[in-house]
């Protein structure tokens, strides 16, 4: 009887500790995995030929900003894009730069 009680307490303790460790481990790895997945899902966008929908795949670019990008084409480089389109701030450019191509 005493052995059953000890095993029951041990099992309960392992369940609590194991659950805490699983929650801790999954929270860190899920964040890293989601960042990697998001970066991997964004296809390169040719800024001078992309459709409205393609531009909207860029982080921080919604329908209004995508329309402004289309309106002021063509762009030679990042500076040209930022000077023609209000709303492409330096911080936004840092987010989209890895995904933008100039043709």
Note down, in words, how this protein is organized:
With 103 residues, the protein is mainly alpha-helical. The chain folds into two domains: 1-41; 45-101, DNA polymerase, domain 1 (Orthogonal Bundle). 65% of the residues lie in helices and 4% in strands. It is built from five helices and two strands. It has helices at 2-41, 52-55, 63-71, 78-84, 90-96; strands at 45-46, 100-101. It has a two-stranded parallel ribbon. The longest helix has 40 residues, at 2-41. It is elongated, with a radius of gyration of 25 Å.
List keywords for this structure.
Endo/Exo/Phosphatase_dom_1; two-stranded parallel ribbon; Helix-hairpin-helix motif protein; RuvA_2-like; mainly alpha; signal; 103 residues; DNA polymerase, domain 1; single chain; 2 domains
Strand order of the largest sheet: 1-2
Kindly report the CATH topology of the largest domain. Answer: DNA polymerase, domain 1
What's the total count of β strands? 2
What's the SSE pattern?
Answer: HEHHHHE
Please give the share of residues in helix: 55-70%
The N- and C-terminal alpha carbons lie at a distance of 78 Å
Silhouette: elongated
Put simply, the count of helices is: 5
Strand content: under 5%
Rg over alpha carbons:
25 Å
Kindly report the name of the CATH homologous superfamily of the largest domain: Photosystem II 12 kDa extrinsic protein
**CATH hierarchy: architecture of the largest domain:** Orthogonal Bundle
Low-confidence stretches: 20-25
Just give the CATH class of the largest domain: Mainly Alpha
Average residue pLDDT:
80
Sheet/helix structural class? mainly alpha
Domain count, please report it.
2
Main β sheet profile:
2 strands, parallel
Protein name: Helix-hairpin-helix motif protein
Keywords: Signal
Organism: Meiothermus ruber (strain ATCC 35948 / DSM 1279 / VKM B-1258 / 21) (Thermus ruber)
Signal peptide: 1-25
């Amino acid at each position: 009887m005493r052995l059953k009680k000890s095993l029951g307490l041990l099992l309960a303790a392992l369940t609590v500790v194991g659950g805490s460790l699983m929650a801790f481990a999954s929270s860190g790895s899920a964040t890293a995995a989601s960042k990697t997945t998001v970066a991997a899902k964004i296809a390169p966008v040719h800024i001078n030929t992309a459709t409205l929908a393609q531009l909207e795949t860029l982080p921080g670019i919604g329908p209004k900003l995508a329309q402004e990008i289309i309106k002021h084409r063509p762009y030679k480089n990042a500076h040209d894009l930022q000077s023609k389109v209000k709303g492409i701030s330096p911080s936004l450019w840092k987010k989209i730069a890895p995904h933008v191509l100039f043709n």
